From TrEMBL:
The lineage of its organism: Bacteria, Pseudomonadati, Pseudomonadota, Alphaproteobacteria, Rhodobacterales. Gene3D superfamilies: 2.40.50.100, Nucleic acid-binding proteins, P-loop containing nucleotide triphosphate hydrolases. Its EC number is 3.6.3.-. It comes from Thalassovita mediterranea. It is an enzyme of class 3 (hydrolase). This is Trehalose import ATP-binding protein SugC. Belongs to the ABC transporter superfamily. Signal peptide: none annotated. Coiled coil: none annotated.
Length: 358
């Protein structure tokens, strides 16, 4: 287990980068606590795998340092860093049995036969492959092979960190839930530092203590699932977290009044001297349809998804989503919306702006 420090870290695949745009991973300065479970979350190409490969030692950064427990490991090999990594696609030894695949990392470390047998049995149960332990990997499905990869990554108890690069891509949906639960159980039992790369917000939010949201090579927010939902620090976080994501609406803001196409919205905080692109951000859960006062909308359709209804509407030419409870009756006269003032965020050039109590 290790505390991981990213010190002035950045990386470009261009050998002679001329500007910030040439960097796949823009400058990072973060400390990730020993024993916590982190998820790196973002869309494809945002820098998640680049950062993970720098942490594992598969890639040397263009600038900066990476430290494990304050020891500089920037130039250290993957083996010397004492980490385990599980990749997106299965990496197994086809000629070996499942048992021998799982035992391989322990045998390399000189563990006793008794410990290896006990640990392999334990991990076999964890990945649901006790019955296949003596089968050769060659004849197994890709789904089963990825479970072997996961098991081999988890079999050692002495690693500094466990790194997972979208490990559940080829796993069927039901097994995904079971394996995420097992990973959480493993983390609680042994306290490994875990870093889990994914573009799936459900995987990230159900697995991690802290979610690291990346966008365009930057870490734009690190927080708990609640913090990401309640206070997105960047409009991308608001858009990417939640289903539907946060509504982002161009606005003018002065003191505690936001003006949207001439219509006024009262805010719970007061703002002055906002320069740049100003937007109002509010999650669909905090928008309500009404037949009284509020901003005028044109309702396009209502989607009943069982637990709630999603109303797709148009506000002054902008798409807006509203979440209403399952029991809400939506009539044709409900063509106005109101926001919960305490749940409205203001963004300037895509970044959250904190105001003062109104």
């Amino acid at each position: 287990m290790a505390k991981i420090t990213l010190d002035n870290l950045a990386h470009s695949y261009n050998p002679s980068p001329q500007s910030e745009d040439d960097f796949a991973l823009k400058e990072l300065n973060h400390v990730w606590a020993d024993g916590e479970a982190y998820a790196l979350l973002g869309s494809s190409g945002c820098g998640k795998s680049t950062l993970l490969n720098i942490i594992s030692g598969l890639l040397t950064p263009s600038q900066g340092r990476i430290l494990f427990d304050d020891v500089d490991v920037t130039q250290a090999s993957t083996a010397d860093r004492n980490i385990a990594q599980v990749f997106q696609f299965p990496v197994v030894y086809d000629t070996m049995t499942v048992r021998d695949n799982l035992a391989f990392p322990l045998k390399n470390r000189g563990a006793s036969a008794q410990y290896i047998a006990q640990r392999v049995q334990q991990i076999g149960a964890m990945i649901g492959m006790e019955a296949e332990l003596d089968k050769r990997a060659r004849g197994l499905t890709a789904d089963a092979k990825q479970k072997i990869s996961l098991g081999r990554g988890m079999v050692r108890e002495d690693v500094n960190a466990l790194l997972f690069d979208e490990p559940l891509t080829v796993i069927d949906p039901h097994m995904k839930w079971e394996l995420r639960t097992q990973l959480k159980s493993l983390h609680h039992e042994f306290g490994h530092t875990m870093i889990y790369v994914t573009h799936d917000q459900t995987e990230a939010l159900t697995f991690a203590d802290k979610v690291v949201v990346m966008y365009d090579g930057r870490v734009v927010q690190i927080g708990t699932p609640e913090e990401l939902f309640e206070k997105p620090q960047h409009t991308f976080v608001g858009y990417f977290i939640g289903s539907p994501g946060m509504n982002v609406i161009p606005a003018q803001v002065e003191n505690n009044i936001a003006t949207v196409h001439g219509a006024s919205v009262t805010l719970s905080q007061s703002y002055t001297s906002l320069n740049g692109k100003v937007e109002l951000g509010v999650r669909p859960e905090f928008v309500s349809l009404t037949d009284g006062e509020g901003l005028p909308v044109k309702v396009r359709r209502v989607e009943d998804v069982g637990r709630h209804k999603i109303v797709r509407a148009e506000l002054f030419g902008n798409d807006i989503n509203i979440v209403e409870s399952e029991g809400t009756s939506i009539s044709p006269d409900m063509n106005r919306i109101v926001f919960d003032p305490a749940k409205v965020n203001i963004y300037v050039n895509d970044w959250l702006k904190e105001g003062e109590a109104a």
